[in-house]
Amino acid sequence: MLQLVEFFSRNRNFIFFVLLEVLSFWLITQSNSYWGAKYFNTSNYYVAKTLTLSNSIREYMHLKDINEQLAHENLALNEQVARLKELNPVQAPAAYTPDSVFANRFEFIVSKVIMTETNRTNNYLTIDKGSADGIKPGMGVISATGVVGKVRSCSEHYSVVTSILHSQFMVSSRLVRSGEIGPARWQSKDPETISLMDISRYKKVLKGDSAVTSNYNSVFPPGIMVGTVKSTKIRPDQTFYDIDLKVATDFRSLSYVYVVQNRLQTEQDQLLKPIEEERQ
Question: Which of 2, 8, 84, 155 is 20 to 30 A from 224 in CA distance terms?
Fold first, then answer.
């Protein structure tokens, strides 16, 4: 308390000067309409700027909650889109009636990415959901923009995902315009480019065409973006295009992903197992 009294005592002249300045300014704005209007407009401008800054800071502090809400909204939308695509398949005969169980076979689990790689030959991601959340090895993983990869291994609360940017990862893809189907595989060191193979040179392929997951996938729902045609090249001695796709998923800014569970995958794999053993 004594220190406060000493402070005012030492600075009494300066404090008195400031009070007089404030009083003078108030008298000017009250007695002169021009300066009163000027003060009113200026004060409103700075109050508005302060409120805008305050709201921006508040919104930034709540971005995590907003992102989580959006991720769960996307989860519901993904389930609806997958179901609608199965109920109304592209290029299906008019007489084809989809099975309701088959159409509802995909469900999604939202998860947050806690680690991702893009600069290796074989890249992986780590997500914060594991076996306790119903995740198993072999499940597909997608983002809001496209294919991400496939679950490689799980612990109780975490999972490692083989990225689409992995030399051994392939996904059956379909060009939207031509309907041609071929495997997409990462064969470069560019995290934004993958190769689409086995597309006949006698089919028309245009730059910018979309490549999506085909109906031949048991891991991914059909119609999930893989990438867009970046460039095409034909060598004289080959019957297929060399096609580069711009990857749909931006792995450098990936935050939330959706793990895809195909309820009928076990049944499908068991049915195909004898055929695979016979081929071996």
Answer: 155
